[in-house]
Amino acid sequence: MANLTMVTGFLLMGFSNIWELQVLHAMLFLLIYLMALLGNLLIFTLISLDEHLHSPMYFFLKNLSFLDFCLISTTVPKSIANSLSHSYFISLLECIVQLFLVISFASSELFLLTMMSYDRYVAICQPLNYEVIMNKGACVKMAAASWLTGGLFGVLYTVSTFSLPFCSANEIHQFFCDVPSLLRISCSDTHIALDVTVAIGFSLGILCCISIIISYGSILSTVLKIPTLEGRSKAFSTCLPHLFVLTLFITTAAMSYLSPPLDTDSILDLLLSVFYIVVPPTLNPVIYCLRNKDVKTALKKLIA
Of 98, 168, 174, 274, which one has the greatest count of Cβ atoms within 10 A? Predict the structure, then answer.
């Protein structure tokens, strides 16, 4: 215990040590953040105001937009401020709150995306029973379960991570506080509570992936039986964008959390985190707005 020191904060890793590249990173992140902010707020507003969008699919999309807004707002603004101020310090309390929010929002998004895949399965494979199965009460309960489960995981990961002792090393090899980077600078080789939490999270993540695979497998089988090309195109247009973003989110997050920690700084860690923290919240509104006729119609009505 003599070698332990009271850690009051951490130093986040920057994308570059060159001032010009730091400014470029800040401007790029600012542009991406504004796109994600405007896009998700636009979808949230359109679905809230247009009665034609008050269906289960858009209810889940509205929740997804709000989650995306919260997730990207938890990390990107802080990274922009650090790059411009040339100070990468984050206090212990800020790090705790940031880790809790990132895990909560990311976990909630995974569960919500699973619910959305089930919604598309019922809509395409059991259309006659859709309104009965996906009634308002069921949708609210499914969304609430996603939020509450995500919050529970946020608490479990945060408590188990910060119950570990930290030595004098306080440099986090990431642009935000996350579990793998904090675990790497912990001076404890024993972290049973965190291992159990990760195992539970990984198991539920596998269950979500299996559920999504089954849902989309059934959807693909049903869509291929549709006789008309127009019918198949309409079904694929609502599912393929969802499947693309979902795959990107899950694979990059899994690679980041399941890969063995490195002893040196790696730009790959930063890029992987960008692909599951920054890219999906930015792509979701673009994909759903540009490829969805109902959303585009609602936007035209709002502008007119």
Answer: 174
Tens-place pLDDT, residues 257-301: 776 655 555 677 777 788 888 888 888 888 776 667 778 787 778
Mean pLDDT of 51-61: 88
**Can you read off the two tokens belonging to residue 22?**
């730091």
Q: Mean pLDDT across the chain, nearest whole number?
A: 83
Q: Is beta strand 171-172 parallel, antiparallel or unpaired with respect to 9-12?
A: parallel
Q: What is the spatial distance between Cα 180 and Cα 214, in angstroms, rounded to a whole number? A: 30
Burial classification of residue 206, based on how many CB atoms lie within 10 Å of its CB (0-12 exposed, 13-18 middle, 19 or more buried): exposed
Contact criterion met (CB below 8 Å) for 285 and 43: yes
CB-side exposure of 225: number of CA atoms within 13 Å? 8
SS (HEC) of the chain: CCCCCCCCEEEECCCCCCHHHHHHHHHHHHHHHHHHHHHHHHHHHHHHHCHHHCCHHHHHHHHHHHHHHHHHHHHHHHHHHHHHHCCCEEEHHHHHHHHHHHHHHHHHHHHHHHHHHHHHHHHHHCHHHHHHHCCHHHHHHHHHHHHHHHHHHHHHHHHHHHCCCECCCCEECCCCCCHHHHHHHECCCCCHHHHHHHHHHHHHHHHHHHHHHHHHHHHHHHHCCCCCHHHHHHHHHHHHHHHHHHHHHHHHHHHHHHCCCCCCCCHHHHHHHHHHHCHHHHHHHHHHHHHCHHHHHHHHHHHC
Burial of 144 (0-12, 13-18, 19+ CB in 10 A): exposed
Mean pLDDT of 202-221: 87
Architecture of domain 18-303: Up-down Bundle (1.20)
Beta bridge partners of 11: 89, 171
Q: Which residue has the tokens 């159990």?
A: 196
> By C-alpha distance, which of 46, 41, 51, 66 is closest to 150?
66
